[in-house]
Write a structure and sequence with these properties.
CATH class of the largest domain: Mainly Beta
Oligomer: single chain
Largest sheet: 7 strands, antiparallel
Radius of gyration: 23 Å
Strand content: 35-45%
Number of domains: 2
Helix content: 10-25%
Number of helices: 6
Structural class: alpha+beta
Number of strands: 23
């Protein structure tokens, strides 16, 4: 089993950076650790307290490219009062205080980050005090996550690898890839309205035709007998003088729901272009998706699409880490897909 795991990682390391970019969104979870890499090959590894002790999490971030350092942050579980200071301990010895950040996380110094990595790779005990209760970082799964992180960035057998260091030159490490650039265009500030009955008769078949195998609008095809008022409406929102955005409820589950969004010409005579059937809201030229991993909403999956003058282009996709009851809304921001969005200044 172990040999097979190393073989798989070696094959991954043999892929070129462009090939990895096409397979963006590397995610891997093992025991109390996980790693998420985005399309620029930046990787973020998160470690947690044990599952029965929701006390905190550590985030280790490493950009792609040779000789890049690992940076670290700590986030403690939500409590009635925020701590005024957080101290790190390794094997019972103080490793110093952490620097507070504005988002209620705490910054590790480079030296503290190295100590965390060294400790969890072995049998060291890493603890953070200052919160409502001590946060003991689990090392269970860390080695597998570090190995995956190294492989995803092409670091295996290099001096900078976290696991399996060697003498392969750092120049062979995958370079950071450029994020796609999107020119966001301003949209009309007009109110949405429901389609009229005659419009529905024309538009609904076009929306159904635009469905894909991996993007189906179940409730549009087969309305539920338990539908609430407005569930079966198709809403029209003008985007500009030539395009409109159409939306309707596509599915509803225990604690999530998804809306379909399509772009059509303003006259409603052409074909519909499906953007997603899992959207949640639309505002100011952006379609947003946000779904809970479970009812507690301590883990989320999010995505965004922005208007570029012709259609809505996906601009972001992310998750918030394991469902560990640490923070409402999720513990971290772990993107799998990022872009650089330029704002259009036109009125």
């Amino acid at each position: 089993m172990k040999n097979g795991y190393f073989t798989a990682l070696a094959l991954l390391a043999g892929l070129s950076a462009p090939a990895l970019a096409q397979e963006y969104g590397v995610t891997f979870e093992h025991k109390d650790w996980e790693v998420v890499c985005d399309n620029t090959l930046a990787c973020r590894a998160a470690g947690y307290s044990t599952e029965d002790d929701a006390s905190g999490s550590v985030l280790l971030t490493r950009e792609a490219g040779p000789n890049t350092l690992v940076t670290g942050q700590v986030r403690l579980a939500e409590a009635g009062t925020s701590p005024t200071k957080v101290t790190m301990w390794v094997d019972g010895q103080s490793a110093g205080e952490l620097k507070p950040l504005e988002d209620e996380s705490w910054q590790l110094s480079d030296a503290q980050t190295r100590k965390v990595i060294t400790a969890v790779k072995g049998s060291g005990r890493v603890e953070f005090t200052g919160g409502e209760k001590p946060f003991v970082l689990s090392g269970s799964g860390a080695n597998a996550i570090f190995l995956k992180m190294d492989a995803s960035q092409g670091r295996l057998d290099s001096p900078g690898a976290l696991i399996k260091q060697g003498h392969r030159p750092e120049s062979g490490v995958f370079p950071a890839l450029d994020a796609p650039v999107i020119q966001r265009v301003k949209v009309n500030d007009l109110q949405m309205r429901p389609l009229t009955t005659p419009e529905m008769a024309v538009v609904k078949p076009k929306l159904l035709t635009a469905q894909r195998k991996d993007e189906e609008c179940e409730l549009l095809a087969s309305p539920s007998e338990f539908a609430q008022p407005g569930d079966n409406d198709i809403l029209l929102t003008p985007v500009d003088d030539r395009h409109v955005l159409l939306s309707t409820l596509c599915w509803r589950a225990a604690y999530n729901e998804g809306y379909g969004y399509w772009v059509m010409d303003s006259a409603l005579t052409g074909d519909a272009d499906l953007i997603t059937t899992s959207g949640l809201s639309y505002s100011d030229g952006m379609i947003a998706q946000g779904h809970k991993g479970r009812g507690l909403a301590d883990c989320m999956f999010t995505a965004e699409w922005v208007w570029d003058g012709k259609t809505f282009i996906q601009s972001r996709e992310a998750m918030t880490g394991m469902c560990r009851s640490i923070r409402a809304g999720g513990t971290w921001d772990l993107p799998t897909y990022v872009t650089n969005v330029n704002q259009d200044s036109r009125k």
